[in-house]
DNA sequence: CTGTTAGCGCATTCAT
DNA sequence: ATGAATGCGCTAACAG
């Protein structure tokens, strides 16, 4: 039963603490000072709730130090429930490592080890510590841990947006892989402008991540310096780069565009056009596309560039405009599947047969691409693979960094897959499933 | 020009530091000890790079303390460049507040204030500090700050997934609003199972966020206790709840379903069906839908439940199965626009006219909904508004928390908007744009 | 296997 | 307007 203990009591319970059965309270208050004992007992009588070392640890310490000859460890799980509810005016206080130590009858460092490296601690000790942790709901303060160890177990992922469905696979895989190794991922949304990216980075670096994942291309000189100065492994994804900061896991957008251009021309198209989002990667694909066209003598490629993130509506409008300006186009390659969907819808509305009169290609192989009628030709990227590889490479560097210094720059090309479907069938074939 | 300084030097530069022009070096090495001076000067000659108090602050301190009668502050911006590149074996070290203080000729606390509350520090001092900070690229260590102040300036957002385009508006607005007030947002992906949510929460709470945003319904008793025990403001979004943890910003999914049911019946449908994702919110909408049907005497509603996150492919398949089992259905309400897209495509393939023979409704009003042919009837949620309101309410609590204790539970209902489009036109009208 | 000692880098409190 | 002293909660290094 989920009870909201917060409402039952006049003050919040300390971080990670909740009421438990009291059992036999062995409150040797004489050892703690009369004042404390009075307050503690008062609380106990009133709330019968968990008792917490909290602010009183200074009083407890001497007891633990005194080590009476007999046994100052809890004799049963119930009598270790010893202390007092927080009463100070400045709000509740969290359970600390030290509190666990006192209740488990060991030193703080042993608790630390029992939790982070149980293999080097005696089994019985670990069990005892775990029991107390569980009972008090202790959650270690990672700020303190990071500060002391100089390792944050935190990896930052700076992405332009999370709205892009195409990135989310990557981020999920990245997160999972790191999670499995005990790292947390902290997302930073840089938006599409480089200005806020600088501020974001400042914030992110303040949290001293052990590594950084970047998505989204061009960084200012200042940003690059800051990153280099941070001295932590960096992996850039979703692109190969001519001047990588550290590692990259991605593919050549130029090659994708080139392959799309060739494919459309192979399908018999003679007047291909482009609909592109206004980001670097889409532009690179556009460049590759035009190169492929130029190689076969088609030097003029009508083109529409739209504000990112691109939408289906933009796709419809762009095709409309393209047709108005260049009525003879017979193929259009879009920088996202959403744009392509818009183009297909617009074509349908105008009675333009796809692919009979107009071939349409997208990018991303989103869920719906294969389900459309006609099914959409697109480019599939192993977004999950990118995320996984980025995580693994980062981890390798992070762990190595502990021992040695830097590694050699590493570039991973995951390639891409052009998925030819009905929306760009070779011209000779007439589609069967026209409606 | 973006130079990768990391590769120019055998060791990484310290966090936030990069080479700068040296100017006139006033290295009074006599004060620092011969050994240090020898090394420092050796480095300076070899790299001509930035000079860093770093590990040597203990040596510097006495100088700063001595306060020679003249002026121990930098006389110009160039001669304050004083120290040595990091040479210790245990790797580079970050610039600290103390380093800035030494170079700016003030105490650490003054630097702290100059950066966080410049209004209470003399203008000239702030300027001097800022200059040094800028030059050394100092980035404050937030772990230390959080530990000392017991405020992390961090808000956690725990969501099932970021793939869902429908959440991303909320998250973006949430992030923006908090960013504007100096808070960082930390995302946690809970997935769709409650098991990993528990572990995630443990990790998240370890970072001591000042507040938490939750999306995605049912929490285990354990989770609820942990959250209550954390004693920080919590806002649950995208739903109203019967047993809220703290605050909620959302709407009634039951009411959405009810409105959809009424709408379809109003359109003249007499045999409505459901296609739902297998999450609580979709289920609640389904319940409302069936209630609306029951109110008018339609007690049997064919239904397909699919694994979340739902896809267009699932929508196609689900409609196929529904038609096989209940060939007489004349309306289908889907728990997402993607499912609805699939249903529309499948209907098109089978020659079933939408809305003539089958009305289709979705949920979310995704980008493409209005662009489809026929345009999709759906439900629009102000996702951005949810994010903004969640942030504002959280902020209010966070700031208030500093002064007083808890606030009263707060429930905000942002409502919803049923957007009736061509896919559910009233039966009498025959659609004009059939293909 | 466990304990002792000594900080990590910063902000709070109380001085001046 | 600025500074000194103190400690946040934890872990590293070294003892035993």
UniProtKB/TrEMBL annotation, chains A, B:
Q: Does the keyword DNA-binding apply?
A: yes
What GO molecular function annotation could you give as one example from this UniProt entry?
DNA binding
Start and end residues of each HTH lacI-type domain: 95-149
Q: Which Pfam families match?
A: LacI, Peripla_BP_3
* Keywords, sorted A to Z: DNA-binding
Q: Which PROSITE patterns match?
A: HTH_LACI_1 (PS00356), HTH_LACI_2 (PS50932)
Which PANTHER family has this protein been placed in?
A: LACI-RELATED TRANSCRIPTIONAL REPRESSOR, TRANSCRIPTIONAL REGULATOR
Protein name stated in the entry: LacI family DNA-binding transcriptional regulator
């Amino acid at each position: 039963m989920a009870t909201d203990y917060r409402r039952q009591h006049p003050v919040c319970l300390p971080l990670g603490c909740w009421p438990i059965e009291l059992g036999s309270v062995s409150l040797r208050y004489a050892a703690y000072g009369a004042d404390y004992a009075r307050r503690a007992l008062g609380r106990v009588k009133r709330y019968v709730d968990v008792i917490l070392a909290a602010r009183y640890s200074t009083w407890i310490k001497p007891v633990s130090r005194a080590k009476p000859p007999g046994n100052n460890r809890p004799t049963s799980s119930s009598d270790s429930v010893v202390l007092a509810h927080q009463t100070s005016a400045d709000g509740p206080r969290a359970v600390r490592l030290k509190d666990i130590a006192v209740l488990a009858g060991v030193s703080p460092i042993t608790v630390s080890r029992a939790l982070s490296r149980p293999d080097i601690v005696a089994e019985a000790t670990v069990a005892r510590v775990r029991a107390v942790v569980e009972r008090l709901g202790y959650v270690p303060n990672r700020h303190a841990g990071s500060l002391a160890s100089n390792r944050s177990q935190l990896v930052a992922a700076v992405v332009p947006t999370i709205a892009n469905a195409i990135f989310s696979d990557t981020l999920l895989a990245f997160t999972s892989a790191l999670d499995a190794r005990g790292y947390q991922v902290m997302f930073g949304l840089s938006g599409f402008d480089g200005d806020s990216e600088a501020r974001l980075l400042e914030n992110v670096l303040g949290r001293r991540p052990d590594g950084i994942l970047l998505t989204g291309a061009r960084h200012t000189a200042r940003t690059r310096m800051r990153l280099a100065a941070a001295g932590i492994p960096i992996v850039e994804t979703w692109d190969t780069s001519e001047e990588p900061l550290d590692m990259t896991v991605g593919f050549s957008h130029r090659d994708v565009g080139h392959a799309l251009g060739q494919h459309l021309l192979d399908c018999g198209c003679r007047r291909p056009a482009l609909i592109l989002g206004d980001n670097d990667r889409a532009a690179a694909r556009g460049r590759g596309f035009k190169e492929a066209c130029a190689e076969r003598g088609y030097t003029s490629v009508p083109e529409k560039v739209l504000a990112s993130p691109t939408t289906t509506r933009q796709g419809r409008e762009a095709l409309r405009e393209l047709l108005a300006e260049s009525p003879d186009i017979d193929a259009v390659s879009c920088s996202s599947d959403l744009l392509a969907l818009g183009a297909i819808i617009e074509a349908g509305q105008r009675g333009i047969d796809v692919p009979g009169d107009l071939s349409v290609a997208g990018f991303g192989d989103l869920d719906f691409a294969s389900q459309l009628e006609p099914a959409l030709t697109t480019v599939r990227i192993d977004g999950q693979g990118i995320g996984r590889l980025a995580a693994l490479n980062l981890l390798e560097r992070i762990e190595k960094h502990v021992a040695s210094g830097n590694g050699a720059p590493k570039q991973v090309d995951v390639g891409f897959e052009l998925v030819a479907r009905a929306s760009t069938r070779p011209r000779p074939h007439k589609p069967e499933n026209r409606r």
